[in-house]
Amino acid sequence: MALKIVKGSIDRMFDKNLQDLVRGIRNHKEDEAKYISTCIDEIKQELKQDNIAVKANAVCKLTYLQMLGYDVSWAAFNIVEVMSSSKFTYKRIGYLAASQCFHEGTDVIMLTTNQIRKDLSSPHQYDTGVALTGLSCFVTPDLARDLANDIMTLMSHTKPYIRKKAVLIMYKVFLKYPESLRPAFPRLKEKLEDPDPGVQSAAVNVICELARRNPKNYLSLAPLFFKLMTSSTNNWVLIKIIKLFGALTPLEPRLGKKLIEPLTNLIHSTSAMSLLYECVNTVIAVLISLSSGMPNHSASIQLCVQKLRILIEDSDQNLKYLGLLAMSKILKTHPKSVQSHKDLILQCLDDKDESIRLRALDLLYGMVSKKNLMEIVKKLMLHVDKAEGTTYRDELLTKIIDICSQSNYQYITNFEWYISILVELTRLEGTRHGHLIASQMLDVAIRVKAIRGFAVAQMATLLDNAHLLTGNTQRNGICEVLYAAAWICGEFSEHLEDPMQTLEAMLRPKVATLPGHIQAVYVQNAAKLFATVLRKHEGETDSHAAQETSQLLIDRLPLFVQSANLEVQERASCILQLVKYIQKLQQKKVEVAEEVTALFAGELNPVAPKAQKKVPVPEGLDLDAWINKPPSESESEDEKPKAVFAKEEPKHSRSRHTEVDEKELARRREARKREQANNPFYIKASPSSQKVYDAPGVEHIPVVQIDLSVPLKVPGMPMSDQYLKLEEERRQKEKAERKKEKKKKREKRGKERKADSGPESEEDIAPAHQVDIVTEEMPENALPSDDDDKDPNDPHKALDIDLDKYPTVHWFPVQKSSKHKKKKQKKEKEEKEKKKKKRHHHHHHHSNAGGEDSVQNGTVEEEEPLPPMSNYFLLAENSYIKMVYDIQGNHQDESKVVVSVIFENKSDSFLKSMEFNVLDSLNSKLQRPEGAGAHDSLTVPFQLPPGISNEAHFVFSVQSIVMPQKLKGTLTFIVKSDESSTHEKLDFKLHFTCTSYLITTPCYLYDAYAKLLESGDLKGSSLRLEGINMPFHHLLARICFHHHFSVVERIDSCASMYSRSIQGHHVCLLVKTSDQTVSIDAKCDEPSLLGNVLDEIKQTFSKC
Amino acid sequence: MIKAILIFNNHGKPRLIRFYQYFAEDMQQQIIRETFHLVSKRDDNVCNFLEGGSLIGGSDYKLIYRHYATLYFVFCVDSSESELGILDLIQLICFFLCVCVFVETLDKCFENVCELDLIFHMDKVHYILQEVVMGGMVLETNMNEIVAQVELQNRMEKSEGGLSAAPARAVSAVKNMNLPEIPRNINIGDINIKVPSLSPF
């Protein structure tokens, strides 16, 4: 033995320690990887030795290698060995290594539970400290559950050093094991007033983290935090608390009012910039939450803005940056107070720091008004020129477009100016945003009718000078604008001054070097132009010119017919043939212009991006109902649902599109008109300006009359600056004019300007010409956006626990959730009716009101009556008492189920002092009231006279729901008759089936259902039941009732069904029947849950 | 919450990494590379905040960093942390490193945080960091408290014979320091504390 130790220490002398390793790596710069691999071999040898010191040294080196990116998980077990050393030195090394490389997937982690528990209760505070620190990095749900109690005890440790660590680590425990939050919370709250400032700070830290995610649960702590805020001198704690208040105020405006004063005091008094900054931030949050409540907070805003100005003017870039950040928050609610600092913001655009420039740009976005838009954009354009070829320039470009196009071009008074800006932007070389510019050009040209003439002229110039844009390469993103230019010139070719020239420009051979999709648009629009040119010539009876045009196309198009791009080729050859045919006709002196123009008749209208999605389902329209009689059985039998389970597109989806007849359309149109007439915000179309369209609904695009008061004609390539000058002149002139006819104009404008008047009134700036922006089409009655931006995977969701309530056992008379759909509801009511008759009067009034009504109102559509069904299963029975129970979950809480037990007194005696208890398992626990022990029983809150039954509800928390489970329990009670009273007890077994974790969730949309199935996330399984001798609808009703499913769709002898577990697993069934055989194909994202549910379904049917 | 603390040199070589959320080793290296790429191209006279590290976190997360001599100290934090507070914390940590590890270079502290010292004592730096930040949350900002705890633990290690003789040096140096003269609680939150004010040591 002694020899071994000596040998060990001799070995050690030759071992490398961390420093040697580092030195070695530095000396082997050329073959670092090779050197390290030999080192790893050495380490492997060292780890095989018995000497713990050698092992610890090896593990220490591994920690270093881990940092360099080497996977050291193979040594996990050795790390555990070093962790369990009794020497602090080694233990610390072990825990450090573990904290660097252990994670939830590390399997040896479960071996550490007892070691960590031992370390936590070690008499040496540093052993405990090291264990806590390590645990904070690798705590898993299992560790959290097993060690939560030990850590909770440490929160009251005598040493503040341990207390603060224990408090802090609780947050990690809560995250991994949310059930621990409720029991630990009182103690955590206590720690807010710990005598040690470190512990106090830790507690504030934890509660702030908790409250940030679910602020509403922590509102009740506000007074306590308020006290801390006014008493604490620790800036860290103050910052945390003030940040927390920032999160709380939106929920409780009264709190905000209280906060303003102390916060303003802090702002005035503190010298710490970080604290000042957070105070300002929270004051802003308060002001936002109060928004219009108080009249006198303009002083506070002024203070904030003033302080922020100081920050922005500071030479410290960090302060500048944060100042701008906070400023943008104020901007949202109080734009006026920020706008007065425009000079400062514009100055920041010149800053050398890109992040600061970007922040300033963000601010500018909110600062523009009709008055200053042109000026600001001009300034930005200057920057664009300066910022040649950088990503910042691209950012500037998008910002310019954002600023101009925001809220439906609200601030643009002169669209000619805007088009010129867009055209100027096309001169930027190497920008990625050609596409963005193009879409803006299209949008403006399509939606602002008044501008089309001007836009077309500009686009024609662009096409003419296309060689400037395409320049050298194709990857130059700017050539995208040619797409827009070609389309605009083609579509609105009636505005072209010289269509022939444009046509010629579009058919130049150089075009063939453009990307395919642009060429395609070129070819198509060349055809449109051709039509226009023809008409023009025929109007002038210039047949020679017309034929020349045809010849031009016939000469040039073959180039495109040879294109490698299919789209181009196809269009070109179509059009080429067409033109050849036209040429023939022309030679016969036939007039063709009318017919060619007819090819491109009609106008396109802008449709809002989400319009299709938002079409509401009209009342009375059942998308699932058949429009025609279902096809005969032979066709449909298996085909349809099978398609769903296979990954094909469901074939029948077309049947869903409702075909509405003309009459119905007309009726709806009428209704819509009436509605619009009553809607003050709807801009009515004036009939004279409207063409009559064939398609229904087009006439509802709101368009306001145009009144071009200032005809603008700027020769040559327009410079946006000219507009700026013109605009100024115009404004001055207008000002003078307005004085005269102020009254008259106002009347007029009242009607006209509804479409584009901004939130802040800018009465004194009238648009250069009254321009109407065609709003994008939206379906009438569009549903409000239903985007849910909550992340279902957010771990913090589980911590959303209302800590002020302690719901452990709910006692309420039978009143089952009424949300369940269709058949189930009906059956349930029947059930209830039955029960009610039996039951005593003392809780009758509760269920009376709704029950009978809904049975009458219920949609009774069954062909045959269903046999009565009950979900209540026998729990236990003896000569005194009978218990039946049912288990229900709800979506609100994914870890709780409610067990409803009906107690029925079968004896002639009085039953009292009933106590209900179960032996909790790891997985399922009875929720007991706060303060009760883990084995205490619950008192049933009623007594039972002879022959009476009553129901009680018990809440159980469950963790895993994929397996069924049985819990043993006991009911004790006193049987009291006239002469005697005896204690009795009854044992029972509560069976938590997997079915009981399912919740009837109606799935209204077949599409969503199909999508779910196609997503491929679900795993399948199937079941066959033989000899089922009941009507199909009975079968479905049974599955619905007993297993909490709902029918998504049923076709003859096939039905798809859906249910969800309390933890959100989707369970989908496809039930098919033929000749007493029922086959169920099932899919679920949790295979074991599915297996168990199927077993349970099988059992249900084996019983009948 | 602090999601990660990364220290790397001007060439992007990691000198200390501490993730408070699990990432596999290759992902960790990728994050380091990306972060280095982001911060290294910034001038020293621009602000110390950076948004848009795509690998960690997402929109709620920011990088806050400081650059001392050859080293970058980068914190990846979410919106619950005060930006200026974290900047001060980085300065504070640097200061601890000077006091507790790089004892001999204390006079050149901050401006000359010696990278070599950091490399050879990575484990020590971790132990100090653990006293300041735990599990992604700030544990202690009181200077004296941290120094005292680190010293006590080092003493304990020394009494056990230590892993090697090296730490003894640091321990003795800390012991010999005139602790009471260290500012009781560096006014964390006040960015204006600059290096010269520490010169009395």
Count of discrete alpha- or pi-helical segments spanning 4 or more residues of chain A:
42
Give the DSSP E fraction of chain A (strand runs of 2 or more residues).
5-15%
Quaternary status: heterodimer
Order of helices and strands of chain B: EEHEEEHHHEEHH
How many beta-strand runs of chain A? 15
State the largest interface. A-B, 75 and 62 residues
Largest sheet of chain B: 5 strands, antiparallel
Q: Which range best describes the helical content of chain B: under 10%, 10-25%, 25-40%, 40-55%, 55-70% or over 70%?
A: 25-40%
Unreliable segments of 5+ consecutive residues of chain B: 103-111, 165-201
Strand residue percentage of chain B: 15-25%
Estimate the mean pLDDT confidence of chain A: 77
Shape of chain A: globular
End-to-end C-alpha gap of chain B: 33 Å
Radius of gyration of chain A over all CA atoms, rounded: 39 Å
> Could you name the CATH topology of chain B?
Beta-Lactamase
Q: Any low-confidence stretches of chain A, pLDDT <50, length ≥5?
A: 6-13, 635-659, 680-718, 745-764, 785-789, 806-829, 835-863
Helix/strand structural class of chain B: alpha+beta
Give a structural overview:
The complex is a heterodimer of chains A (1104) and B (201). With 1104 residues, chain A is an alpha+beta fold. Among the domains of chain A are: 1-101, no CATH class; 105-213, Leucine-rich Repeat Variant (Alpha Horseshoe), CATH 1.25.10; 218-294, no CATH class; 415-601; 873-992, Sandwich (Immunoglobulin-like); 998-1102, 2-Layer Sandwich (TATA-Binding Protein). Chain A is built from 42 helices and 15 strands. In chain A, the strands form 3 sheets. In chain A, strands 10, 11, 12, 13, 14 and 15 form a 6-stranded antiparallel β-sheet that branches. In chain A, a hairpin with a 2-residue loop joins strand 12 (1046-1051) and strand 13. In chain A, helix 2 runs antiparallel to helix 3 (32-48) and helix 24 (415-425) runs parallel beside helix 26 (452-464). Chain A is globular, with a radius of gyration of 39 Å. Chain A starts with a helix and ends with a helix. Mean pLDDT of chain A is 77; it is low at 6-13, 635-659, 680-718, 745-764, 785-789, 806-829 and 835-863. Chain B is α+β, with helices and mostly antiparallel strands. Chain B has a single domain (2-162), classed as Beta-Lactamase. In chain B, the strands form 2 sheets. A 5-stranded antiparallel β-sheet of chain B has the order 2-1-5-4-3, with helices on both faces. In chain B, strands 6-7 form a two-stranded antiparallel ribbon. In chain B, helix 2 (83-100) crosses helix 4 (122-132), helix 2 (83-100) runs parallel beside helix 5 and helix 5 (143-159) crosses helix 6 (166-176). The longest helix of chain B is centred in the middle third of the chain and has 18 residues, at 83-100. Chains A and B meet through helix 2, helix 4, helix 6, helix 8 and helix 10 of A and strand 2, helix 1, strand 3, helix 2 and helix 4 of B. Chain B: This is AP-3 complex subunit sigma-2. Chain B: It is found in: Cytoplasmic vesicle membrane; Golgi apparatus. Chain B: Belongs to the adaptor complexes small subunit family. Chain B: One of its GO terms (cellular component) is Golgi apparatus.
